[in-house]
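Q: What would this complex look like in 3D?
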Amino acid sequence: MATQQAPAPSGRVLDHPDVDEIRLEHVLHALSDPMRLRIVCRLATDGGELACSVFDLPVSKSTCTHHFRVLRESGVIQQIYRGTAKMSLLRAEELERLFPGLLDGVLTAARHQEQRLAAS
Amino acid sequence: MATQQAPAPSGRVLDHPDVDEIRLEHVLHALSDPMRLRIVCRLATDGGELACSVFDLPVSKSTCTHHFRVLRESGVIQQIYRGTAKMSLLRAEELERLFPGLLDGVLTAARHQEQRLAAS
DNA sequence: GGTTTTGTACGATTTCCATCGTAGTACGGC
DNA sequence: GCCGTACTACGATGGAAATCGTACAAAACC
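A: Here is my prediction, written as structure tokens for the whole assembly.
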């Protein structure tokens, strides 16, 4: 019956804001950092849970932890421990209900800009 | 032939980023401040040029100047001197071309949140 | 010219934030 | 029990940013 070889969630639990605690300003601030925007784009593209380690970010591990925490505390992502790994997942549906079109708009804009800057 | 009683633009000119210099991160950062988000919402609602003075913001005049400068330098608004007043205008069309749906998404989200928070 | 209106420039302050390194913890596997 | 992996916690640091007050500037109007 095992659907995946991924380990089950461990006992460690992380604090997430409830949907009605999410604030637009905090979401926008979270997305205004290049590293974090990159993380979110990747999560949206791949569409599932990703371990922090698969993001090859040009910063130290502690900085990486910091960015993921900002994203989680602002309500953009959900995080869960699986074994030694910590998986991240976009809270896309909740954000869509809360701020319709916002996340899509930002993601589209991010890709737009990436292409635009690549062609320069 | 006078279309308005508004004074003509004065000689003083302000620096604006060119469209292809506008960066998504800077726009998002500009919009992630409550004061600035408020300014942008008002500009979008009223839909034209507004003098800085019509925004009754709970901050000092110098802070106000600061916020308008951040918005202008990030490419969100355009500013022009008319007499002693300095008018601000959303760069809605340019932003729409650059980041389709982004501004609308943010504005909708802002209004959504305003209503949601008012009902609590 | 003098006054009022509107906003700027500058410096100070204080807080936030992105970054790092080091030491530590939780878990899985051996 | 021990080791490796993956991430955290904590403290430090340097830089950005939000805020303010005071002094100034540009334009309109009398």
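A: To summarize the key features: Chain B touches chain A at residues 20, 23-26, 28-29, 31-34, 37, 98-102, 104-106, 108-110, 112-113, 116 (CB under 8 Å). The CA atoms of residues 9 and 81 of chain B lie 5 Å apart.
Q: Very helpful, thank you.
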